Amino acid sequence: MKRACVFFAVLLALAGSIALAQWRRNGQARTVREISSDTGEEPPSWKVEPEFARDVFTFARVRYGGNYSRGWGRSGGGDWTTDAPDSDLNFSFRLQQLTSLRTDPDGRIVDLTAPELFDYPWVYIVEPGMLEFTGEEVAALRKYLLNGGFLMVDDFWGEAQWQNFYGQIKRVFPEREPEELPMDHPIFSCVFPLAHLAKNELQIPNIGDGMRSEFNGGITWERRWGESAREVHIKAIFDDKRRMMAIICHNTDNGDGWEREGYSAFYFHEFSEKKAYPLGINIVFYAMTH
């Protein structure tokens, strides 16, 4: 992992010139750090040099589905808050630490209907297995993606959750189909070499199933979602010029790999270090340079 990071840090510097604005409402930045951590760990932080203050990559988490009045914490925040803030902050830290990409230490929460959405070239939707976009969100997401934005979708399991998300993304792009990515696609090798793996080897379970996998023969799929959760699918949606607009990670939970990296040495080395971080960094690099 270290050898790959040293070599590709130079490449990732290409993405470091993207200027991003902060979302402010009533004079206060809406940062992901406002969501309370439940891991017991102090999320990482660092200072951005003044000359890079507006020249950083920002992890932008989408707040979806009209859950806007339910607060910021897990007790009422909705599925869009899953794994936050630690997943976003840890991932941002690893980008800062392992690459030349300057990153914002705080991350942001963004509504699809906010004008500031277009300040972020990369956004993240988590647990879309039960989401329902509003009509305004459908129109805004379509416009954002067709105008150069990139969406990463993560952490949903089984056929029922797939069908729900599929129905929602077809509202955004009724004329386009998600396409399964082959492992020889450049996104699996543009920074960290993952193309030699079988796609199921990229499966990230939640922390509980991940810890049990050490003793149950390596089962990493979340069995509560049924047999249809066994197989990892990584699909993409392309525009008319074959630019990737969205990557959809189904039957895997990269966010837990980022959030729970400090929970145990086994989980970190088996899932965070080998799979969740390399794939996430590849996705960011590919999105920023293609």
Along the chain, the helix and strand elements come as HEEEHEEHEHEHEEHH
Low-confidence parts: 1-29, 67-77
- Please give the order of strands in the largest beta sheet: 4-3-5-6-9-8-7
Helix content: 25-40%
Number of domains: 1
Give the CATH level 1 class: Alpha Beta
What multimeric state do the chains show? single chain
**Main sheet?**
7 strands, mixed
- Euclidean distance between termini CA atoms: 23 Å
The class by helix and strand makeup works out as alpha/beta
CATH fold label: Rossmann fold
* Helix run count: 7
Give the name of the CATH architecture: 3-Layer(aba) Sandwich
Radius of gyration: 18 Å
Account of the protein in words:
By secondary structure, the protein is of the alpha/beta class. It has a single domain, classed as Rossmann fold. The protein is built from 7 helices and 9 strands, in the order αβββαββαβαβαββαα. The strands form 2 sheets. The chain has a 7-stranded mixed sheet. A two-stranded antiparallel sheet has the order 1-2. A hairpin with a 2-residue loop joins strand 1 and strand 2. Helix 3 crosses helix 4. The N terminus is likely disordered.
